[in-house]
Every structure is written in C-alpha cells, then in structure tokens.
C-alpha cells in the first residue's frame, strides 16, 4: 500500500474494522448498516455531506453517521468556500465535516482543489504567473491544514478537466496556464501531504468512451512522468433515461491496470419525475450494478453517493424535471435503492429465490442474412434482488443455445446463418441469478447471403447518452459473404445539428449529415461470417433525443 498505508491503517483502526474482517462476509444481519457490510468487503461506502442539515437536523446526522464510513464535503472544501478572497482562508464548513467524520470513525475525501466551477472571480482574472502561484498557495494551505489529521486521507486534486470529446476543457485554468496546471497541482498536493491519496475526478467517464479514454491516456502519461496521480474518481451522476454504462467494470479494470486506485465519487441516479414503483426499481438496479462493479474490481476502494436523502440533492436544481436520485426519500425513508446497495454490499446473503416474471415473446424486426433485432415485453422482479437482464436462446430441442444477453428488453442478434429459420425465446434474470420461465417462441428466417462478392452488414447500438451527446458502441460489422474481405465502409446519416466528436477502431469522414466510417489498418480483414466493431461519439443540440439508425455496409 506504499506511502498511503499509515493514514488508511489509522482510519481502519478507528472504524473498528479489524473486528469486522474476522467475520465471514455476509454473516452480519440483513438489517446491519451499509458500512458494516462494506467494511466486511474491504470497501468504503460514503456520502457527500451538506453543512446546513449537518448542523441542523438530527435525522440527517444519525443516518450519515450510522450508514457511511466515508464522507466528502458537498461544497465546504471548494475554493469559494475556503479562500473567497486571496489569502483569506475560512475553514468553518470544512472543519465541521472533518469533525463529524472524526466523531463517527469516517474517512474524509477532500473535494476539490482545482476546478473551473465554484472558484472566485479573483482567481479567474489573474495572469499566468500569479494564477500558478495562487493555485500552489491554495493547495498548500488547504491540504496542509489537514495533512496531520488522520481522518483526511485523499483529495480530488483536479476536477472535470476534459470536454466530452476528450479535449482538455477550455477552462480559465487551461486557457491561462495550458495543460501543465494539472501536473503542477498534483506536485503541490504531494508536497503539502505526502501521505494523502491524490485523485483526478470527472463525470461521463464511467463507460469506455472518448472522454474516459482521454482520461486514461492522461493518467498513463502523467504517471510515466512521475507525476503523483494515485487515484481516478468516476463521479457516477447517472440518469435512468440514458441507460446504464454496462462497461463500467471493464473501464474500472483498465484504469486499475495502470496501477491507480479507482473509486466512484459522486453516485446518484436521477429519474424523470414523478417517482413510480417501476422507476424506483430501475434506479435500484443502477445502484446495485455500480456497487457490484466496484466489488468486482480489487483496485476499487469504494463508492460515495452524492448525498443520501432526496431532501438535499443538487439534482432538481440542476436538471429541471428530474429528481429522486438518492437512496432515502425526502422523509428519510429508505427506498428500493437503499436495499439494492445494502444487498449488493452484503453479497451472497441474498435470500431471493423468486424468479422474475416471464417476458413476452421476442419479435424480430430488421432481419438481415446475419442479424435480427429482437424486442419483447419486459419482466418485473419482486424477490428483492431486482431485474438484472435477459438471456436469449435458440430453441433446438434438448440442446438450446444461448444466443446473447441483454440488460434491456431488446437485443440485436449478430453472426446468424443466412437462409435459416430461427425459433427463439427469452428468459429474465434477477440479481440473485434466478431465471424466469421461457417466453413464448418468436420466429424469423434469415434471407440468403449476398454471395461471394464480399457483402457486409453493420448494426449500431447506442451505449450511453446525455443531454447533448451520445456514444454509439459497438457498431458490429459482419462479413456476410462467402469469401474474405480486406476492407469495409459503413455509411449512416446523423440527425440535423449532430456532429461527430471522436471515433475508435474506424476513421470517420463527414459530408453534410452523411458519415462514412472506414476500417482502421488492423480491422479491415474479415473472414466469411467474421465480425469486428468500432465506435463513435456525437455532439447534438441540448435536449435533442435523436440518435442515428440505419447503417449500410459496403
Ligand atoms: C455540486 C453540489 O452538489 C451543489 O450543491 C453545488 O451547487 C454545485 O456543485 N460535480 C462535482 C461536484 O464535482 O462538486 C458537484 O457538486 C456536482 C458535479
């Protein structure tokens, strides 16, 4: 654990974790707190704290202390709170959070030292030399104040330095100092507290996309230069209408391979209001999936939720019409999302033996010689572990084959055999692994392949989207001919106002709204029935919900 161990060990001892580790995972009672289960798994479970209710509301303090073993100041450690005028430092809010954490055996993650938001105008208007000096001074004073405090173990050194397309954000920091402010900030933080774990933090980096890949490249480069980046924070501000980033675990794992700690730093899952039982259930699966991804990655230290009660959440103010993003309601009643986090952390103790309801028969649209787009009526799950997804099977008598899995009630099958009749059915899975009965059969027949002249198909899936952009990943390109091909071209049309913002595994050229994707050097060769994938990201006007459909391959 290197230089960080001293602080971590002190906090573990404070938290009484030594005893918790002696218990087999899951031996705690089902009603035990989130932190009891998290500690037994060697992870933290945290919350952001707002100073108002922290000083005014007993229920707030009680739950925050009982359920969480890690805290982050929601606003109290930001620059506008700690250094509103140059060299005038105020730590009243920050100290209140640190004192609460100390009383409750919680570790504190300092948030955040260098950010383009909530930073006073006097900083933004400085010239380059003065700005760099002010940044170093701020880091030295804020980090220095808690350097000997055993509760404060980590810091977000820089926050949100990337644009959605992976470019550096054109913030006043970048515009005045260039990208070197990032390395400078980390070095200043290390000098101020050699034991603290130093993190870079951002949003929309949960899945594998242009922005997270830019983050990955930067962390790799900085560490190669000896810049002390110890940890990467994935904020996790999710919204049920944009889908779950299903490659979260894979993404955490690729960062872990760089040698950094990873953590979920600001998890919330907003819904489009009003609340309903169905939306609560969907939200719970998102919470469960995030916790499970962290549990599955050794280098993931834990999960911090951005608050805990819907009574105090930034979501309704920031995303009009959306809300109810947290695990307790506004009256401090635990929601299904609390149970989901609890049961995921409790791991293996689930007593859910109730399978989901049987899904509807799959119906096939857009059948090509190698692909078919299936949709079916969704299942529901009442056993407590929540609906996890679906398995799609081909009916073949005694030896049915699994054709694919999906987390939603649709799936595009690829790699099908041309000129073949298929009978398929779907079974739903819950979080405890219970499988529903098979749905009624759906049938379709693939047409003949285009022959030996190198035909191909392309099928795109929207993996992740947000207000003004989305990621299409994967686009699966399949050689449907009977002889090998050595290159492919996929064409599609973007809705008006949409512009590409990066791609991987293909080169894009744009003419008007028509986009042409050509294979990269390494993925043009496809054997008959062989396939490869590429992906791309698109910017779109705020509030536009369109995405492209209809990919043609040649
Ligand atoms: C938010 C707070 O929750 C709000 O109270 C405040 O008004 C604005 O900032 N990314 C971050 C957090 O890193 O600091 C932000 O917190 C949410 C987005």
TrEMBL record:
<dbReference type="GO" id="GO:0031176">
    <property type="term" value="F:endo-1,4-beta-xylanase activity"/>
</dbReference>
<dbReference type="InterPro" id="IPR017853">
    <property type="entry name" value="GH"/>
</dbReference>
<feature type="domain" description="Fibronectin type-III">
    <location>
        <begin position="358"/>
        <end position="449"/>
    </location>
</feature>
<feature type="region of interest" description="Disordered">
    <location>
        <begin position="345"/>
        <end position="365"/>
    </location>
</feature>
<dbReference type="InterPro" id="IPR001000">
    <property type="entry name" value="GH10_dom"/>
</dbReference>
<comment type="similarity">
    <text>Belongs to the glycosyl hydrolase 10 (cellulase F) family.</text>
</comment>
<dbReference type="InterPro" id="IPR044846">
    <property type="entry name" value="GH10"/>
</dbReference>
<keyword id="KW-0378">Hydrolase</keyword>
<dbReference type="InterPro" id="IPR001919">
    <property type="entry name" value="CBD2"/>
</dbReference>
<feature type="compositionally biased region" description="Low complexity">
    <location>
        <begin position="346"/>
        <end position="365"/>
    </location>
</feature>
<dbReference type="InterPro" id="IPR031158">
    <property type="entry name" value="GH10_AS"/>
</dbReference>
<dbReference type="GO" id="GO:0030247">
    <property type="term" value="F:polysaccharide binding"/>
</dbReference>
<keyword id="KW-0326">Glycosidase</keyword>
<keyword id="KW-0858">Xylan degradation</keyword>
<dbReference type="InterPro" id="IPR012291">
    <property type="entry name" value="CBM2_carb-bd_dom_sf"/>
</dbReference>
<dbReference type="InterPro" id="IPR008965">
    <property type="entry name" value="CBM2/CBM3_carb-bd_dom_sf"/>
</dbReference>
<dbReference type="InterPro" id="IPR036116">
    <property type="entry name" value="FN3_sf"/>
</dbReference>
<feature type="domain" description="CBM2">
    <location>
        <begin position="449"/>
        <end position="554"/>
    </location>
</feature>
<dbReference type="InterPro" id="IPR003961">
    <property type="entry name" value="FN3_dom"/>
</dbReference>
<dbReference type="Pfam" id="PF00331">
    <property type="entry name" value="Glyco_hydro_10"/>
</dbReference>
<feature type="domain" description="GH10">
    <location>
        <begin position="28"/>
        <end position="344"/>
    </location>
</feature>
<keyword id="KW-0624">Polysaccharide degradation</keyword>
<dbReference type="Pfam" id="PF00553">
    <property type="entry name" value="CBM_2"/>
</dbReference>
<dbReference type="GO" id="GO:0045493">
    <property type="term" value="P:xylan catabolic process"/>
</dbReference>
<dbReference type="InterPro" id="IPR013783">
    <property type="entry name" value="Ig-like_fold"/>
</dbReference>
<feature type="signal peptide">
    <location>
        <begin position="1"/>
        <end position="30"/>
    </location>
</feature>
<keyword id="KW-0732">Signal</keyword>
<feature type="active site" description="Nucleophile">
    <location>
        <position position="266"/>
    </location>
</feature>
<keyword id="KW-0119">Carbohydrate metabolism</keyword>
<protein>
    <recommendedName>
        <fullName>Beta-xylanase</fullName>
        <ecNumber>3.2.1.8</ecNumber>
    </recommendedName>
</protein>
<dbReference type="Pfam" id="PF00041">
    <property type="entry name" value="fn3"/>
</dbReference>
């Amino acid at each position: 654990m290197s230089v960080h161990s001293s602080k971590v060990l002190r906090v573990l001892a404070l938290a009484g974790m030594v005893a918790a580790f002696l218990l087999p995972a899951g031996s705690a009672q089902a009603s035990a707190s989130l932190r009891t289960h998290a500690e037994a798994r060697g992870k933290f479970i945290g919350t952001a704290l707002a100073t108002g209710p922290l000083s005014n509301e007993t229920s707030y303090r009680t739950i925050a202390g009982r359920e969480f073993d890690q805290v982050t100041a929601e606003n109290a450690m930001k620059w506008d709170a700690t250094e509103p005028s140059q060299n005038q430092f105020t730590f009243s809010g920050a100290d209140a959070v640190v004192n609460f954490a100390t009383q409750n055996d919680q570790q504190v993650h300092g948030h955040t030292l260098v950010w383009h938001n909530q930073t006073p105008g006097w900083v933004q208007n400085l010239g380059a030399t003065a700005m760099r000096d002010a940044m170093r001074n701020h880091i030295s004073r804020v980090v220095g104040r808690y350097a000997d405090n055993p509760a404060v173990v980590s810091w977000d050194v820089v926050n949100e330095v990337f644009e959605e397309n992976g470019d550096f954000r054109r913030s006043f920091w970048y515009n005045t100092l260039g990208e070197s402010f990032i390395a400078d900030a980390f070095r200043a933080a290390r000098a101020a507290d050699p034991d603290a774990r130093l993190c870079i933090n951002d949003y929309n980096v949960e899945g594998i996309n242009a922005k997270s890949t830019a983050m990955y490249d930067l962390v790799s480069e900085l560490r190669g230069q000896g810049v002390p980046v110890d940890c990467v924070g994935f904020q996790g501000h999710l919204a049920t209408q944009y889908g779950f980033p299903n490659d979260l675990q894979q993404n955490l794992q690729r960062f872990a391979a760089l040698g950094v700690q990873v953590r979920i730093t600001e998890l919330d899952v907003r819904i489009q209001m009003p609340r309903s039982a169905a939306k609560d259930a969907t939200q719970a699966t998102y919470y469960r999936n995030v916790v499970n991804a962290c549990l599955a990655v050794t280098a993931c230290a834990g999960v911090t939720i951005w608050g805990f009660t819907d009574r105090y959440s930034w979501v309704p103010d920031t995303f009009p019409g959306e809300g109810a993003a947290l695990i307790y309601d506004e009256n401090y009643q635990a929601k299904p999302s609390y149970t989901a986090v609890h049961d995921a952390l409790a791991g293996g103790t689930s007593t859910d033996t109730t399978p989901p309801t049987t899904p509807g028969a799959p119906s096939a649209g857009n059948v090509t010689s190698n692909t078919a787009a299936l949709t079916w009526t969704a299942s529901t799950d009442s056993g407590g572990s929540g609906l996890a997804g679906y398995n799609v099977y081909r009916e073949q008598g005694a030896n049915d084959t699994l054709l694919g899995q999906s987390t939603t009630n649709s799936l595009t099958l690829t790699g099908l055999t041309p000129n073949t009749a298929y009978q398929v059915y779907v079974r739903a899975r819950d979080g405890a692994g219970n499988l529903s009965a098979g749905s009624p059969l759906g049938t379709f027949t693939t047409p003949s392949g285009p022959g030996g002249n190198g035909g191909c198909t392309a099928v795109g899936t929207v993996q992740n989207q947000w207000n003004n952009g989305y990621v299409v990943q994967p686009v699966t390109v399949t050689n449907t001919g009977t002889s090998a091909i050595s290159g492919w071209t996929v064409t599609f049309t973007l809705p008006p106002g949409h512009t590409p913002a990066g791609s991987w595994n293909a080169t894009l050229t744009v003419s008007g709204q028509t986009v042409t994707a050509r294979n990269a050097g390494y993925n043009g060769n496809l054997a008959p029935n062989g396939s490869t994938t590429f992906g791309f990201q698109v910017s779109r006007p705020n509030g536009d919900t369109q995405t492209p459909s209809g990919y043609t391959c040649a």
